[in-house]
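Protein data sheet
==================
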Amino acid sequence: MVIRQHAFPIHTEAMVEREMVEQETIEAKTSLRARIAGVSKLTLARRVVQIFVIVFLNAVFWGGVFSTDLSFFESLFRYVPFLSSPRSPLSDSGGFLEVMLGTFVSRVFPFLLIGLVIMVTVVFGRSTCGWMCPAGFIQDIFGWAGEVTNNSKQVSVTSHPFLSRVKNWILVLLLVFIVPFAFITDDPTYTLYLQTLGDFGKNPLGFWSLDEFFFVFVPTVSNQLASNNLDYLTNNWLVIVQGLFYLIVVILTFYFPRSYCRYLCPYGALTRPFAKHAIIALARNPAKCPGRKECGACELACPMQIRILDEPYAKISGDGECILCGKCKDACDKMGYGAIELAFFKS
């Protein structure tokens, strides 16, 4: 009985102490977020580029609105390495991966496209994801809303690596079903295989593309509902599943920035192995960086949740996950250290 009487207060004190430490950690992170908040020149430049791209990708649409011929801009963005919705009612553009999969379906092996993906990624890394992707821009808006309301969180260090591999499995699934098209020589087999895959064969990336959701799914469903065509939803269970799935993804970006980019984007999975060797990257100056105990602002700011302070000083790649958004550099500069710099030809 004596042991129990003494054990209970000791256990309670340990719990209280742990709760106090957790509360202090939360308060420290909140304070740190407040210090690194605000719009820097780098962030402003990135926003301008993102808005420019999202507007001019849909130049034909805006030309119709303002009765102006803007088709010239549309031709400039015909194939871009990040947008994956050529079926968009607002734009005829399509990303490398979308066109690559479509080429496979046409029974042609896309050697040129594969080479272009490798070349662009080896030079620029995944900077197109951070600076130009329309879906990334929309995620940034939700992520910013989460930050200013102190709702931004981080996935546990044990779960994050596992979840990061999900997009790899999605890419493998796509390739397993689509690549065989390039090796089918007779028409009857080709027709049978295409019919067997159904809509997946016609639009392989459709379900897994957040661009498709924003710029194809949402306008299509909105038009159907505006026309009081409720049968479009009741007769298409896949539409309901896709809508609910991406609604959850969008909500998650409010709490966990760039959730889709981190865990679900097939284009990110395709480019990640090459992005690790990118010519343009960020680096950390060991003479200026105080480390995780003294600061850690860069890791808190990173939307891809890269453990920057565990990365080699010469190059921050996050195993190919860095999108070169520059938020870590912004945070470091605001803390007064200026330890993160742009680097070239580092390994």
